[in-house]
Amino acid sequence: MCGIVGYLGEKEKKEILIEGLGELEYRGYDSAGIAVMAGEELRHFKAVGKLENLKRKAENFESEGYGVAIGHTRWATHGKPTELNAHPHSGAFSYVVHNGIIENYQQIRERLEKEGVNFLSQTDTETIVHLFEYAIKRGMDPHEAFVETIGELEGAFAILLISRAEPEKIFFAKNGSPLLIATDGEDIYFASSDTAVIGRAKEAYYLEDGEYGWAERGRLAIFREKEMVEAHFKNLPSDKAMARKEGYRFFMEKEIYEQSRVIADTMLGRVLDEGIFFEELEESFFDGIENIEICACGTSYHSALAASYLFERVAKIECRVEIASEFRYKEPLLSKRTLFITISQSGETADTLEALKMAKKSGLKTLSICNVDNSSIVRLSDATLLTRAGIEKGVASTKAFATQMMVLWMLVLYLAKRRGAIEACRLEEELEAMRKAPKVLMVAESLHQRIHRLSKRYLHGHGFFYIGRDLFYPLALEGALKLKEISYLHAEGYPAGEMKHGPIALADSELFTIALMPSSVLYEKMRSNVEELSARDATILAISPERFDIADDFIETRYSEHPMLEFFEMMVVTQLLALEISVRLGNDVDMPRNLAKSVTVE
Ligand code: AGP
Predict the structure, then answer these.
(1) Tens digits of per-residue pLDDT, 489-504?
(2) Architecture of domain 443-593
């Protein structure tokens, strides 16, 4: 999804912008651009495609001395990914970059066009810069003009604007899309995510919805409803290395291998001998809670779905799971006895955020499970359990999913104990299994090699069915999502017992079935379901600790003593399979076509 960076200071502005945009590349984009004002000179560069193209275009440009600069990576929403539609958008003397969607842009555009304003692009963003300049033409000073402009906008936005009318300032505004201001003690940086400024800035202020203002050398003015706001800056991590590939071919690969380590981080200080402890949660937080509703999207939805089996089975608490974009418009019946959980890697997913706002509005207690501290979802929730996966760069989520599952498993045990739903010896067994998870998640070289070899047989066919039962059904959904995201092959996740109610009609030798066959959960049932498919000549790749002769291909797993250990082990297998198929097909594993890392529009 779109990324924003801004800089105000003496350093080489082009480099800072392009470097910052590079750190946001993982979010997905289809064009990029920068605008730099140094002294009297206001220059801009835009290019379709990768940042390399932009770099080439701006190769001979250098700016000296104090100046202001803004940059953007665009993921097309209104208008095709062309150079004209790329940001920054300009008027006669100003430039703007914007994330989000201006919902009333058509009305504004028509009005301004009637006044003789000429639009160059098809974007909603261009209206912002024209509104601003139109207000100046009507006699307002730049500050008034900016306030007037953002007052007219409906929808979600994070905006940076620079103008010859006030050449030493950057104007900014945030409503519904993330934006932060950071500093190294001297210069000022702006970004839609702190990834872009880590390593340069030391601390950051994460703007709240409705905040706007301007920055200039040595001064920052932030307002909310015309009142000045005091910014409380938070320290930023300095470790940029975390965000690099460290010798792996792709971030996704590195992140698969990291899962063992990050899951140990997730557990640190939380898995104790006597049970689960969450420093972040007051004991009383769950008082009066009778059931759970979870909302999420994509991979996060899959972790929610898997956890719902555990909440009901182990913690004996009713749990409903909804895709956030569906929840938003179904006019759901909500009860104050429901704990509303949102799960999100980024903490910025628009649909999940809106679902959370709805729950808050209805007075529900809210808990988020999130990977990004200070993200919008975290800030809005009553309480948060951070997943501690570290920055996840691959668009296809891997370690975020693993850590979400771990936090959810821990929460299940925490609630099970609190509700008296679990016996002491069973809790002990669960904790013992939990402590083995980091080992289970270690990637054995031999397994990776085997999957690499097998992958060459799975590059064609008319589709993949990932099938599983119980907990392993959401894992099948997740396995299929991973494959389709990065291989562009059609894949579906299905509950194995449902195949005979329709999809089995597709079975022939060109239908690839990836069968998740744990020995600890419904093994015999699963076996019969796979036999039914095999009898119709489907090609079967079985993943199981039990040898399975009728499978065409077989990946033997090692840990069968607990469903969650089987879950984690099979998860790694499905991730590696997707990775290797995608690599063989020559795809960009980390930045698959049409996808964005953080989906901040609905
Ligand atoms: C995962 O591989 C996906 N790219 C995607 O489904 C993602 O999980 C979804 O967009 C939700 O994102 P979030 O966890 O940041 O809210």
Answers:
(1) 999 999 999 888 988 8
(2) 3-Layer(aba) Sandwich (3.40)
Question: In the sheet that 383-386 helps form, which strands lie side by side, from edge to edge?
Answer: 318-323, 291-296, 338-344, 365-370, 383-386
* For the chain, domain boundaries: 3-238, 244-441, 443-593
| Stated pTM of the model | 0.74
Question: Does ligand 1 have an atom closer than 6 angstroms to the CB of 600?
Answer: no
For ligand 1, the distance from its centroid to the CA atom of residue 346, given in whole angstroms, is: 8
Per the CB < 8 A criterion, the answer to whether 7 and 215 are in contact is no
CATH C-level class of 244-441 = alpha beta
Give me the phi and psi of 299, to 5 degrees please: -55, -40
What average pLDDT is seen over the chain?
Answer: 92
Q: Give the distance (Å) from ligand 1 centre to CA of residue 343.
A: 10
Q: Ligand 1 atom 6: the closest Cα is on which residue?
A: 298
Q: Which mutation among 1, 256, 297, 391 tests ligand 1's pocket best, with the greatest number of atoms within 8 A of CB?
A: 297
Decide the pairing of beta strands 511-516 and 463-468. Answer: parallel
Q: Which residues are catalytic?
A: 2, 597
Q: Is the CB of 299 under 6 A from ligand 1?
A: yes
Would the CATH topology of 3-238 be identical to that of 443-593? no
Asked if the 3-238 domain carries CATH number 3.40.190.170, the reply is no
